[in-house]
Protein 1
Amino acid sequence: MAWVESLQKAIDYMEEHLLDDIKIEDISKRANASAFHFQRTFTILTDVSVGEYLRRRRLTLAAQDLCNSNSKVIDLSCKYGYDTPEAFSKAFRRQHGISPSEARKYTGKLKSYNRLVIKVSLKGAEPMQYRIVERESFQVVGIKQEFSYANEENLDGIPKMWDELNLSRTDQRLFKLNNGQIKGVLGVCVDKSSDGSKLMDYWVATEYDGDTPDGFMKLDIPASKWAIFEVHGPMPDAMQNAWKQIFSEWFPSSGYELANTPELEVYSDEDPSSPDLYSEIWIPVKSN
């Protein structure tokens, strides 16, 4: 349960510094995690990004200020991190559906996003099918793109990357190349924060033993102990729900923690909308 407590410490830190220009690195330190893994875990558990949580909370407090003080809009825009009153008003209307001036006149409804408290379930209603496997290092080949997670570029960029590869039929080429133990096409997240950057690589790849085919690149997956989870149901909901169950139910009671090496999502070439679709999540783990 220590990691849950660390995650709550990070949330508390965000709340204590809502009016400051805080960085994802400052927040993740409170959770004893890399910026990449903190952002990923936070989004999985809460369904919002770190940046969106901060925006929602700041605009919630701004609405309270408008209703309970005589502060000018120009002063509030500066207080809550906006360069201009126009930018503040646009963001305010997007969240609340009314302008700051309407809020001050008590015209219309306001939307409040409350402070987060992380809760987990140690016994899920739905059983989880998983196995623990140890594997030596292996090779995957595919396409990669680099994304910044400092500005949450990865959250928008990765779905677009999949759309482009599906349109170009690159995924079908990878299915045909597959000759390894893992059957299917992989989504692979590689954290690059160890070199001081705010970057990650995302690969669409397949396990392949042989010389790297033209048009693809090679990635070596290090020897690891893997927790392999079955995922049943249509994409993307089944995969998203499985990740949430893993972090909210399995990790707190498993005796394992993340090993901070690449994680894998395994996709088949079956109909992604099928209720019987089978996929997998491979997470490298170590004993805590």
Protein 2
Amino acid sequence: MGGIWKTPAAGLAVLERYAQFLAHWPKPCEHLRVPTSQGETFVIASGTPGAPAVVMLHGSASNSVVWMRDAALLGERFGVYAVDMIGEPGLSAPSRPALASGAYDRWLDEVLSGLGVERAALVGISLGGWLALEYATKHPERVSALALLCPGGVGRHRNVLLWALPLLALGPWGRRKFMQRIGAPQPNGEASPAMQAFAAFNDMINSSFRVRRERLPGFSDAALGRLTMPVLTILGGRDVFIDSPGTRDRLAANIPHADIRYLPQASHFLIGHTDEIDAFLRQALIP
């Protein structure tokens, strides 16, 4: 556990808190452990048996807690699988191969096969959006639709580590400033109790977890041109991690049928778009 955590004790504390969130998953669910070449992968399966499959991929320094509300709504019509990404602060293996190695594409393929999912819609945010694109550009026949929130690898990647790492090293004050800059919820009295708990959990992760430092590999125009399935992308104009205008323009040029929603005042931390994703998937997957 020491590879991705600042201390083993800090990692255990985060995972214990994660387990408390999982105990309050809003719909009946099953916790699955899928063996892969990168180690065991943790998956939360819920929703409607036999319905079209939707696989949800969280971002960096996160886990499947981010999908609790989304999984509840999407599960009314779809079979939902929230996957903890390897090398992140969830319950999957701490394995962290190089992003450019092709290992993540192979890992996700093993996860889907282990779940018995031959074809699925992929919903991804940030790093999870990059992973969804990585998989879909290589296996378009296995992806029925893509819903992407601030995906990496398309527009220019901003080097936020220059200011983020110093802030995160400044303790609670610095972590609060970091979360403000990315537009994440704050653990204060203005938020709902559920959002305060989520914000406090994010702060706990940021104080305990060793974030990735490598740059996301980019996608060529030819790779993006292979995405013939329905595509929804939501981008925030104030995103400090990715070049949202550049992402918008490249997607529009290479995927003419994509539904691209650019929100000038939104940040990287996009929340509250569950209904939009649900409507998109219903149109794309349900005859």
Protein 3
Amino acid sequence: MSDLSTKNLHLSYGNKAIIEDLSVDLRSGGVISLIGPNGSGKSTLLKSLARLLPPQKGSVLLDGKDIQKLPTKQVAQKLAILPQSPTAPEGLTVEELVWFGRHPHQKLLSGRSKEDQELVQWAIAQTGMTIFAKTPLENLSGGQRQRAWIAMSLAQGTPLLLLDEPTTYLDLSHQLEVLQLVGRLNRDQSKTILMVLHDLNQAIRYSTQIVVVKDGKVHSQGDPAQIMTHQLLHEVFGLKAHIIEDPDTGKPHIIPYGISRMV
């Protein structure tokens, strides 16, 4: 397992501050959801955690070491990121896409090893995409395409997997398909998964830990059952809601009924 954390992190685009003085520890071994209002800095934070956006101040630490100072290949062997709405060249098949996940492990001029081949097939099988291995991505449904991209990330063989809004633009059945896959990867493969989600009930149901971001700062962090309160919904999302017990999981389930104030 690998640990990911930030220390006094400051991120900005130009002169606009997005994340300010943020320190957070992301527990290994769990499924962690980043939630918060639009514009709160969730996706920006995820990019910085994956070393795609350098900080203005502070640091992102991977296993206690500044991620900006680590070799790119070393980082790619420990964490994989799936950005929002990824795109691929037309005609690329599922299997061809998944092979890209092996690039951080391949040596120059060494070609494809037996281990690479086995891991590519394993990743395709784990995501239920074996029957679609030779199918071009554009011929798949939205849920199938997302599973193919997750298979590519799996083939990278990292203990950490970062997913930026993996359910966006998917219908409900495909959203659940992706989230159930996330749960299996955590449970069966011991993957630590950090994902940005908009749906609060999905974040509660499928996460072992929630990090709530508001105005570039961590508002709350912890077990969903402990931190999901009426006060949090009011302060962070401007919501009036009933919080009931989910009869299936025993976790909180939110039923919004009004707006308490503008966020």
